[in-house]
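Our consortium's second objective concerns turning raw sequence data into structural hypotheses that experimental partners can test. To show how far this objective has progressed, the report includes one record in full. It was chosen at random from the queue rather than selected for favorable results. The single chain below, 136 residues long, was entered without modification.
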Amino acid sequence: MKKTILVFGLLILAILLLFQLSKYTLTTGDVSTEIVVSVIALTFFIIGIYINKKSLHKKTPDSAEIDKNKIKELEITAREYEVLQYISAGLSNKEIGDTLFLSESTIKTHVSNLLVKLNAKRRTQAVQIAKSLNII
């Protein structure tokens, strides 16, 4: 946080110095207005590119690989794991059933088995637990 404040403070200081320099050159008559405006615009463009690359495109660290041993330890079947992945993608029971060519009641059974195995009360809680265990 301190680094961000320092960087933006220095940027503001540099911009103020640029404006003071441009005011000085205009009053002395050495440079035309178009050149001063283009230098200021170019400076803002370069600062914008710098800020965009440094602060907006921070790479999120990839989570650890999927812990297959934990899946076996929890006794989650391959089909239940597939259903869990679709739940984490936000699909409803009907959509999961249509995707896997299973009935909605079969999907409900798999979901209830997952909730018991993950010790969760809701689907969202099951996804959170699965992410914390690195199984999805």
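The partners drew two points from this record. The radius of gyration is 28 Å. The chain has a mean pLDDT of 84. Both points have been shared with the crystallography group to help prioritize constructs.
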